[in-house]
Target: Aspartate/glutamate leucyltransferase
Amino acid sequence: MSSNAPRRPVRDLRFFLTVPHACSYLPGKEATTLFLDPQESPVPGVYDSLSLLGFRRSGRHLYRPHCEGCNACRSVRIPVDEFSANRTQRKLWRRNADIETRVIAARFDAAHYALYADYIRQRHADGDMYPPSRDQYRTFLTLEEPYAHLLEMYLEGELVAVAAFDQLEHGLSAIYTFFKVDESLEKRSLGTFAILKLIALCQEKALPHLYLGYWIEECRKMRYKQAFSPIELLDGRHWRPIIR
Model:
């Protein structure tokens, strides 16, 4: 993602805090979110700069956690040129060699939504995105911006997974992945495979990083991110390797 337009300094942007609300990841905790002013669309330059400071995109909004007395949510990214797939990941890559992929613009597609809705019902019926709806899906994962993309995955002509991602100047940002929930596909670990495909896409585009969003050490659902090595976290304004 690039632009010839002059960049606005981050200090000139307006931000807003939400009121405290129940944390989606840590039971019993309250969370507060810092949002870029909704009047400021996530244009190139602004988005690039804020992503280096730990901001993420959801629909047309850029945000990051801003919780008083808690910094459990840490932004993480993979330096793709240093990435070394482990034995399990190499086996997974070979196991999914028959999956065909295609990158398209982040537009609404009825087949995508049907897959998403089934995924939410089966895997996240206890989460914030349940029950799914077309409006919710459109707001979350479709965006008419040149940096917003979807990675489709097909197995024998059937759509089995979609990974939403953005292309930044300094990497790709993984937004969300959903896939067909079926016992016959469990060994394919399609969520992990999507990350491996995005790493490969970064390498193909000569982009240095794949951003994986937030990591919470105490959150079981986020432990899969630790399987990618090396991985860096944002410590204040500096990215440093996670030492394990």
Notes: Residues 1-6 have pLDDT under 50 and may be disordered. The chain has two domains: 13-71, 75-239. Helices lie at 46-51, 87-95, 110-123, 134-141, 190-204.
